[in-house]
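In response to the reviewer comment on reproducibility (Comment 2.3), we provide here a single inverse folding case reported in full, input and output, so that an independent group could reproduce the run without further information from us. The structure tokens appear first.
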């Protein structure tokens, strides 16, 4: 097992003191923490499920908004190569939070 560098350990400590990712499943939480650690002052979410329901989008929205104060900008991508559902999911998310003040990006990127 590799020893964690003290700078990395401190980075995770600070991050965990400022944002709450406890609502996410363990693997998603670990990946999200790693992304936050690696990307510094912006949040990045790449949501790839092709079967999101409104309740799923609502949970992601809550996690994004809760953690938005830790970042200068937040980027949310729905990428669904198979059925092309990403734009519909992005519109669903935007309906929940139609203004940037809600912690979401000023413009949606739908790919």
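Designed residues, in position order:
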């Amino acid at each position: 097992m590799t020893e964690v560098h003290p700078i990395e350990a401190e980075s995770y400590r600070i991050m965990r003191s400022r944002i709450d990712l406890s609502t996410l499943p363990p693997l998603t939480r670990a990946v999200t923490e790693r992304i936050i650690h690696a990307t510094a002052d912006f949040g990045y979410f790449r949501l790839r499920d092709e079967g999101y329901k409104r309740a799923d989008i609502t949970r992601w929205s809550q996690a994004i908004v809760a953690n938005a104060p830790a970042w200068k900008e937040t980027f949310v991508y729905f990428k669904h190569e198979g059925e092309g559902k990403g734009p519909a999911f992005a519109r669903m998310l935007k309906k929940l939070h139609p203004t940037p003040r809600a912690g979401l990006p000023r413009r949606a990127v739908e790919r």
